[in-house]
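Human:
I keep going back and forth on a fold encoding question. Comparing notes only helps if you start from a blank page. Show me how you would write down a chain together with its backbone fold. Write it directly below this note and I will take it from there.

Assistant:
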Amino acid sequence: MENNKIAVGLDIGTTKIVAMIGRKNEYGKIEVVGIGKAKSLGVKRGVVSNITQTIQSIQQAVDEAESVSGVKIKEVVVGIAGQHIRSLHHSDYITRNNADEVIDDADIENLVNQVHKLVMLPGEEIIHVLPQEFKVDSQADIKEPIGMYGGRLEANFHVVVGQVSSIRNIGRCVKSAGLDLSDITLEPLASASAVLSLEEKEAGVALIDIGGGTTDLAIFKDGIIRHTAVIPFGGNVITEDIKEGCSIIEKQAELLKIKFGSAWPGENKETEIVSIPGLRGREPKEITLKNLSKIIHARVQEIIEHVYLEIKNYGHETAKGKLIAGIVLTGGGSQLKHLRQLVEYITGMDARIGFPNEHLAGDSDDGLSSPSYATAVGLLMEGLNKDSKEEEEEAIEAAVEEILDGSENDAEETTPIVEEKIKPKKKKSFFEKFTEGLKDFLDNAE
């Protein structure tokens, strides 16, 4: 098995840590060769709160994935979420020195770098700068300005900001577990690439990923990401409420939620009762399913209303911002019975449950296409796409070198021109620079 064709997605969640190893098959679909999961004890609301426990859980998940697949894991793509993530909109422009030359990559890079100089709150760092649409001189709504003439280049940006310490802690955990960070991605973006179709992103869609500790939102319109948010509640608060409301232990509350829980109280009759064994020597407890649904309904409604507020803030109610494809629900929390109906009722938008099976090979295990693996599949896709891009660049460079070797015998003067024409400009994404910066920081910290 060729090791370089393999990528690993590591989803550090609040309830579970998943390591997923995969490669692309000949049809470009993803073949998962190994998966490992461990209970996540050191993460609260998407943020690492106990380094030692998180390292142990990562190692456990990685060991399991390695033993299933027989592949040794070296580097991983990690997702980042948590309540410290926020996004903002920002417009910026540059005035070009030479308006007679066409706009190229370098101009866009200058513009993006300028946005990176924005002053953030102390302890915050820009994670992603995503250009939305450009404006050249006075012509607005340009998707791709490269190759155009113009003196002033302006753009609207979607800027995602997070806490430096939280990002470094994740980097630290991965490194201490004996792994290298090949990339860091925002989790809602990873989930989106796993469960959304291009048509949905074009038409306008809100992806709601209900995890254990956080609910992530990513809004797409015209194929471009427009808004991201991380809301600090998830499936765990529902379990917590059941535990408090029914005076039972957490394990029982979780089982009740999964087995009998429903987000729609009207479904259950008063007579439906579940009996739960009491703690040592105590009487068993009887709980009506109607009460259980009422508790779940109240909390789920709160989560959805929070998310809907974000969708409204983005501008869903304006003609230009209308999300035609509605809502896609994914993540472990989306498996709650009647959740889809409740979401449609509260928001008045169409909803569907998103399964990450579109990109998986046909013979994949059914368990992998569960919504709770959406983020892991998305991270794995990021890793594989990054690898294939690097391979393409290497292939181009090899071809260039061959041409150059051949042309050395000819007139020497032509060589630099050939080189300029063919050599692709290797442009590092900000994230690559950021990841490299993080790696250096971690290496020096040891």
Q: What stands out?
A: The chain is about 40% helix and 25% strand.
